[in-house]
Amino acid sequence: MAKFELKLPKMGESVAEATITNWLKNVGEKIDADEAVLEIATDKVDSEVPSEVSGTLTEILFQVNDVVKVGQTIAIIETEGGNLPVESSAVTSSSIEIPVVAEVAKTAALPTSVISEKSEIKSSDKFFSPLVKNIATAEGISVAELETITGSGKDGRVTKEDILNYIKTRGSQPVAATPAVSQPAVTHSSNAVPVSVNGGDEIVEMDRMRKLISGYMVASLQTSAHVQSFIEVDVTNIVKWRDRVKNAFEKREGEKLTFTPIFMEAVAKALKDFPGMNISVDGDFIIKRKNINLGMAAALPNGNLIVPVIKNADQLNLVGMAKAVNDLGNRAKMGKLKPDDTQGGTYTVTNVGTFGSVFGTPIINQPQVGILALGAIRKVPAVIETPEGDFIGIRQKMFLSHSYDHRVVDGALGGSFVKRVAEYLEAFDVNREY
After folding, report:
1. Beta carbons within 10 angstroms of residue 415's beta carbon
2. Is the pTM of this model over 0.85?
3. What pLDDT shows up at residue 193?
4. Average pLDDT of 381-400?
5. Are 183 and 143 in contact (CB under 8 A)?
6. Are 178 and 68 contacting, i.e. CB atoms less than 8 angstroms apart?
7. If you write DSSP's letter for every residue of 130-168 in order, what string do you get?
8. Which terminus of the chain, N or C, has fewer Cβ atoms within 10 Å?
9. Is-catalytic flag, 406?
10. 327 catalytic per annotation
11. Of 34, 405, 410, 429, which is the active-site residue?
12. Residue among 289, 285, 290, 294 nearest 262 (CA)
């Protein structure tokens, strides 16, 4: 028999620790290779940690709500055969995939107000786990209020159960005054309009990720001055081209060809033309992003949102873009995205047309300054101009809806950018080779 040390794997450059939320296996239970052993939570995602080997779980070194550093041994698994080298148990993000349970619709960073709140919690004299800080941020709980919660954990540490129980009774307790801007989850404000409930209604509490999404969306609206520009685009050539080449493309490349990579290619080109849209805001400072990393918003089967990121999108040709879109989309559906897959976005695209919407007004993914919504492609009657005169014909058209931050992006830039995307799409060569 040999002992294998199960370590907390690396989950991204910015993730140094995680909170254990649930042990899926008990001491004495058999474990198969790649089978999930426990669930963890970080500031970014909820994940499962699988075992690299088959064997029996003989020792659990940390309990639920304990905070573990990346690389620390969290359990001992007894295996058949000779001793395993310690180095083989050091799991890295490149050697194993951690399935993502849920992710909010954000990538690189939180809104400035949320960053300030989290930094404030981090500077507190008391220790709070990432999971507790996440919940506190989503609920708009300030550091002063958080420090008043009595903890039942080791050395008086506030556990997940402690803060959830506090939230349930929060309305009847005195709350420390904090600036409204530091509270993203305003849906829980004491000033909320009362909702009447009758006997036939069902009351279901939001899960943790839905609360976080709620907080981030409201915080984005409070942070950025949202304004929208809309433009209608004739994509007839794109539709014809895709219909002509999609079968050959799939046969040669082994990938399905959707409209998304074509649109992403146009957006990446437009961002190179208008780098003022590829920026972030940090207080009174503007950060000009060097790389063009496109986020592609997606809805998961469980209803939560996720934004995987195509890194250096402007450096990809159409085949490379199609492979990247399909890879991230498929892994999102299967819950196999890594934390790094959702980080570093500089601009986001969301396809509201997937659900039949003609256009939408998307909320900016902080700390970015713009997000583009792709509407449904529809056959519509249109005026076609020719040297012989104008006539009515059937064309394939769609709307582009551009939301941008009016604090730093004026109408000229916001409108010119979406117009350039439309120009690239309408100029698409129907005879193009892929």
Report:
1. 17
2. no
3. 78
4. 94
5. no
6. no
7. HHHHHHHHHHT--HHHHTTSPP-SGGGPPPHHHHHHHHH
8. N
9. yes
10. no
11. 410
12. 294
